[in-house]
Amino acid sequence: MLKPVTTDIDALRTIDERLRWLSAWTIHHANHIRESDDGLKVGGHQASCASMTAIMAALYFHALGPNDRVAVKPHAGPVLHAIHYLLGSQSRDALENFRGFGGAQSYPSRTKDKIPVDFSTGSVGLGVAVTLFASLVQDYLTAHGWLDDADRGRFVALIGDAELDEGNIYEAIIEGAKHDVRNLWWIVDYNRQSLDATSADRMFERFDEIFRSCGWRVVELRYGKRLQSALDANKALKDWFEQLSNAQLSALHYQGGAAWRARIEADLGKKAAGFLKEHDDAALASLFTDLGGHCMQTLVEAFDAAQDDVPTLFIAWTIKGFGLPFAGHKDNHAGLMNPTQMAALRESMGVREGHEWEPLEGVGGDARPGVENLLERSRIARDKRSRAFGSVGVPSIPAPAGEEQSTQAAFGRILLDLSKAGGDLADRIVTTSPDVTVSTNLGAWVNQRGLFRRSDMPDVFAQAKIASAQKWGANNNGQHIELGIAESNLFLMLAAAGLSGDLFGTRLFPIGTLYDPFIARGLDALNYACYQDARFLLVATPSGITLGPEGGAHQSINPPLIALGQPGLRHYEPAYADELAAMMEEAFRLIGDPAGESTYLRLSTRSIRQIERLDGSWREGALNGGYWLREPGADAEAAIVAMGAVMPEALAAWEELREDVPGLGLLAITSPDLLHRGWTAAQGRWAGERKPSHVEQLLSRLSARSGLVTIADSAPAALSWLGGVLGQRVAPLGVEKFGQTGNLADLYAAYRIDGEAITEAAAEILLSV
Ligand SMILES: Cc1ncc(C[n+]2csc(CCOP(=O)(O)OP(=O)(O)O)c2C)c(N)n1
Ligand SMILES: [Mg+2]
Q1: What is the mean pLDDT of residues 706-730?
Q2: Ligand 1 centroid – CA 167 distance (Å)
Q3: Which sign does the torsion angle of CA 696, 699, 704, 708 carry?
Q4: Which pLDDT value is given to residue 123?
Q5: Is residue 747 packed enough to be buried (19+ CB in 10 Å), middle (13-18) or exposed (0-12)?
Q6: Which of 317, 479, 615, 621 could serve as a FRET partner for 279 with CA atoms 20 to 30 Å apart?
Q7: CA-CA distance, 545 to 740, in Å (whole number)?
Q8: Is the CB of 44 inside a 6 Å radius of any atom of ligand 1?
Q9: H runs (alpha helix) in 179-317
Q10: Residues 6+ apart with CB under 8 A from 554
Q11: Taking residues 686-701, what's their average pLDDT?
């Protein structure tokens, strides 16, 4: 890192001021100047931006290198846009259209913004933690020889102080400590204000301890240079200042110099008389706002001093709304300056009316060359890189042999076979699981490919010759990243690994496993991963009440409904091993396809007799969401429509009923998600052209007067909507109550997803014609 020269500090200060102006102006323009025809508030966060313009100026124009990646606090998005505007990489159009359709996004978005955004943010806490997992992925790629040292970087998160209440941050640093994570800078904009008010006092000493005990260096940037020397010169004043509560400090910042004077006089009397005499009100206000996060010299020195790879938490004291009329006011989170206040700010910054968008407006003749020079030298990426998918060949994946198999066991078998066969795909698979590696059947794969750790971890049990089915030694060639039980971490790991192509130029094929009910535990992180278009395969098993004696707390009911409403994630639920093999092949293909998506496989531990196939014609249907396992007759009055683990019940009922119900068909559903998407897409409301969808083609084999008995080991709504496609009547079977423990026969009977229930439902539907 080059030592900054004084002129750089001056230029950085100027840039700080320009960022404060441009971010405030962008938000002001969207709210007060741009035409609005719906009357909706546009919004934006001028105070949250002003809080960290100095931090971001020091970071982007001094500290960051070309490989460094940053997650920006969501409500500081306009500052990031202003940075790229100064660099010439953001357009005025996009800023004028901030929060408008196609304009700069409210919160930084990897996929929607046109500037380089390293990580999307929005749901606070997740953007912070994903940087840790990205750093782990960087180490993984380096260890596997896929990333040169010269291409490595640091991962930076810019964090609001209230954001530190999000528990997922602590789950992440605990996991990070286990993996010896490094090259992280997390910078807290410690303005002591949240959305509602001022934040809880004195929590920071505890945050320090938590981070330190996880191996982090904590650097507190409390005072700027001027304030530091004033307080060093007067111990009573320093003691007094340090015992002010968050709310008192914020209130004084808002009230300004006269209030500081009155408070100091009242509390310190003679002890501060000399100090007060030397400072007029304006000088007092200016001095007490000289906190570490606003002092360029302090920031630059702190960043320069942290050039090793130790994960570092910077706590930079700031004032929310610094330099704006509502600085420090507890209600300023969504506060917007009114036109009069904005005009006053404009004047004070030397910006001429009508020249508000000029990048360096108000920068005087002497200062301008230094600023231009610094902008020129900025090392950050200016252009959005095209997304990287690569072209890893996906071999055809055969179904594992075996007359009776569960889909979960077949999954383990397929991975084992892939591992043994070797090849590019197998080498790029990275598996991860939150302490359910063995119980989700990843064990054989891990025995083959090993656990990943940067430094070797011996398998003590193996060394002691204690018999175990599971090898548990780790080294830097391993391909399985074992996580603690924190499902949010699993999804953030999948998010980071699923973006490896974009972030590092090498696409990995991440596979994460967990129990189906615990998807809900990490749901926001899963949504976050999908929102960024990370690509991965999520394998959820066991699922449903089919796990039997495992019991109610582990039974999953609604994940198919979650998947139905989750963009970027394709749900497949196979009944048979050959369907699973086809789905895994498709999932790998989708990871590498720019127009692809992630896949969620809902698997089961129930071992079922496999089906005999006459040919491969089922396959295309299975990949599109469903196929006729037993074709309906021309005169069909009804069909059984079944998904996943309950297929044996459906087949048995079909056998039993087919004599009595003419033309009875059995439709195997493999993805309600794909069927539903195809159906709505085919409405042609968006595309303009009407083509019947796969589900319409399937169901049109039955007359509109016929009925469907739908059955799944999940919420019945996963399939009951099928009746809406062609207006066929539906008798929906599924699980609608929390389950109990029991054997399958008892459970299926109690929750009415057994053969008898199908027979009864079929009778009801036929009688109700
Ligand atoms: C998970 C989640 N919950 C709630 C919000 C709404 N929200 C946005 S910012 C914010 C508080 C911000 O305070 P802080 O992190 O201190 O940032 P500051 O604006 O003070 O810099 C909240 C609650 C959110 N974005 N994400
Ligand atoms: Mg805050």
Answers
A1: 97
A2: 14
A3: negative
A4: 96
A5: buried
A6: 317
A7: 8
A8: no
A9: 203-213, 225-232, 235-242, 246-255, 257-268, 273-278, 281-288, 296-304
A10: 515, 517, 542, 547
A11: 85
Strand 184-190 versus strand 155-160 pairing type: parallel
Paired with 291 in beta bridges are 223
From the CA of 469, how far away is ligand 1's center (Å)? 47
Q: What is the Cα–Cα distance from 411 to 645, expressed in whole angstroms?
A: 14
CA distance 604 to 441: 11
Spell 202-226 as b/e; 16+ CB within 10 A means b: eebeebeebbeebebebbbbbbbeb
How many angstroms separate the Cα of 42 from the Cα of each of 28, 57, 201, 335, 769?
10, 26, 32, 12, 53
Asked if 428 and 395 count as a contact pair (C-beta separation under 8 A), the reply is: no
For ligand 2, the distance from its centroid to the CA atom of residue 496, given in whole angstroms, is 26
**pLDDT score for 1:** 46
Q: How many CB atoms lie within 10 A of CB 516?
A: 27
- Answer whether 761's CB lies under 8 Å from 737's CB: no
Those residues whose C-beta lies under 8 Å from the C-beta of residue 110, and which sit 6 or more positions away, are 117, 118, 119, 120, 499, 502, 532, 533
The model's pLDDT over 220-275, given as tens digits with 9 standing for 90+, comes to 999 999 999 999 999 999 999 999 999 999 999 999 999 999 999 999 999 999 99
Neighbours of 549 (CB within 10 A): 10
d(CA 140, CA 179): 11
- Cβ–ligand 1 distance for 335 under 6 Å, the answer no
Of the candidates 325, 106, 302, the one whose C-alpha atom is nearest the C-alpha of residue 187 is 302
**Ligand 1 in contact with 318 (CB < 6 A)?**
no
The contacts of residue 740 (CB under 8 Å, 6+ apart) are 551, 552, 747, 750
Cβ neighbours of residue 555 closer than 8 Å, sequence gap 6 or more:
517, 544, 545, 547, 735, 738, 739
Is the Cβ atom of 75 under 6 angstroms away from ligand 1? yes
Residues pairing with 626 in the sheet: 669
Instruction: Return the number of other C-beta atoms located less than 10 Å from residue 679's C-beta.
Output: 20
Closest CA to 138 of 514, 531, 476: 476
Report the distance separating Cα 449 and Cα 430, nearest Å: 9
The length of the chain is: 769
Pairing of strands 608-609, 404-405: antiparallel
Q: Which residue has the tokens 């009316």?
A: 353
Task: Please tell me the distance between residue 330's alpha carbon and the centre of ligand 2 in angstroms.
Answer: 10
- Does residue 440 or residue 391 have the better pLDDT? 440
pLDDT tens for residues 178-197?
A: 999 999 999 999 999 999 98
Q: Does the beta carbon of 191 lie inside 6 Å of ligand 1?
A: yes
- Sequence letter at residue 537: L
The answer, yes or no, to whether the previous bond of 542 is cis (omega within 30 of 0) is yes
Confidence class for position 685, pLDDT limits 50, 70, 90: low
Residue with tokens 């509109």: 704
Angle in degrees, CA 670, 675, 677, rounded to 5: 135
Q: pTM here? A: 0.96
Reduced to 3 states (helix: H, G, I; strand: E, B; else coil), residue 221 is strand
Handedness of CA 668, 674, 676, 681 (dihedral sign): negative
Residue 159: nearest ligand to its CA? Answer: 1
Binned at pLDDT 50, 70 and 90, residue 10 comes out as very high
- Quick one: residue 214, left, alpha or beta (phi over 0 = left, psi -120 to 50 = alpha)? alpha
Q: What's the sign of the alpha-carbon dihedral 460, 463, 464, 465?
A: positive
Q: What whole-number distance in Å separates Cα of residue 222 and Cα of residue 298?
A: 9
> What radius of gyration do the chain's Cα atoms show?
30
Residue whose entry in the numeric block shows the structure tokens 């496993």: 513
Nearest atom in ligand 1 to the alpha carbon of residue 122 is 25
- Report the SS3 class of residue 305: coil
Q: Is 48 in the pocket of ligand 1 (CB under 6 A)?
A: yes
